[in-house]
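User: Fold this one for me? It's Shikimate dehydrogenase.
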Amino acid sequence: MEKKESKNIFALVGRNISYSFSRQYFNTKFEKENLENNEYINFDIEEIGELPKKIEEYKKVLKGMNVTIPYKLEVFNYLDKFDKKALRVGAVNTIKITKKGKLKGFNTDIYGFKKSLKPLLKKEHSKALILGTGGASKAVAYVLDDLNIKYKFVSRSPEGKKQITYDEISKDTLNEYKLLINCTPLGTFPNIENCPNIPYEHLTEGHLLYDLIYNPEQTTFLQKGVEKGATIKNGYEMLELQAEKAWRIWNS
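Assistant: Here's what I get for Shikimate dehydrogenase.
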């Protein structure tokens, strides 16, 4: 109990998050920058309904939270306020606890993804396929809208005109859509052999493959891009950028 009372606590809300990038990143940051009065922990919960109990447990010292799979959408029901971008995206990955104890939701994935993607874009990357339709894909779509890049979502269970199935991706599709963004968990450690089911044989040097996964450093999805000479990018820089944005929000 002594630790709870003496340190500012920040936490990651998610399920099965022992591998957590955030906890390692922030605790290393606190050590390097002599911010020893801060500690980052995991709120590893089986369902989002357990969150209020966690918040109450750390009420006096909890200053901010990050949110990861699978709660970026569900957490809205537990917030008092929302940033306009988070509301438009429909996903929250950062929560600030105000001086009055209110919970305000933000989406720093938008910032991290945009800043890490922009330097890689070329003329041919005017159309994108977003693989997956979860919380992270919504931030990706927001950024693509902002950059005037047309896109379609790829889903196993498509809904509406902007979504297609994996089976619908053909050579012609990949000739038209040169930017591919993996927002699924396929290929994450330890199941590193997995990858989205697309016709990789039709990839070219003109393609850009971006994988939000950062562990392993080069997923099977990215490896298959490298084999065809495509440009690749993993999600590590995006995570660093969104983490620093979250830190600024918590301390503003």
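One thing worth pointing out: The longest strand covers residues 8-14.
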